């Protein structure tokens, strides 16, 4: 099995930056290291695939990469031939359902984990890199056949993580409370650790090494322990060991 190469972004859009601009250097370094010239873009988290492709293409062209939309080809053949894959943000449930419908869940996992091709995810694309999508913030506007995702890493991610606002009059649950409630599930549930990526966070995985990059700190939730603040450039490689809280293999349904 090849070493996985992942770049997992909390978001494509961050205040004060153009689309993907805050992560431009990390993305270019990441792709250049693997000699990539063409990126396969997966716009399945949005409804209008062509419009999403038109938004992404000029950005990557400016950096010197060609972009192909998976929806303009046979999806299975496109993944088989891909030099690198970029899965964009949007609605996580729609994204995962479409990945299953197009029968590419197992294939993407195989190409990334066995073939070693680079994988970039943003928001929903980062959610589906995890074992499950249980910690997405999105509304379930469609129903995928399973909440099990690509399982490229052994922990879940909560993109767009928001800290509690002590000045707010809103009395609903905070993001932290929601994640802690997830960790309170009984042992029969496959509960994972959760990495909360604030806007501007990027997780870089190179084989068995994981480093927090970007422009913001992250928040780590280990079941049974208090949440931890994770500074930029922290080494999170320990999270890459299997840490499912119930020793239970996820069934990737295809």
TrEMBL record:
Pfam families: Peptidase_S51 (PF03575). Keywords: Cytoplasm, Dipeptidase, Hydrolase, Protease, Serine protease. Its EC number is 3.4.13.21. GO terms for biological process: proteolysis. It catalyses: Dipeptidase E catalyzes the hydrolysis of dipeptides Asp-|-Xaa. It does not act on peptides with N-terminal Glu, Asn or Gln, nor does it cleave isoaspartyl peptides. Gene3D superfamilies: 3.40.50.880. It comes from the Eukaryota. GO terms for cellular component: cytoplasm. Its main location: cytoplasm. It is found in: Cytoplasm. InterPro entries: Class_I_gatase-like (IPR029062), Peptidase_S51 (IPR005320). One of its GO terms (molecular function) is serine-type peptidase activity. It is an enzyme of class 3 (hydrolase). Belongs to the peptidase S51 family. Hydrolyzes dipeptides containing N-terminal aspartate residues. NCBIfam families: PRK05282.1 (NF003642). This is dipeptidase E. It comes from Zophobas morio.
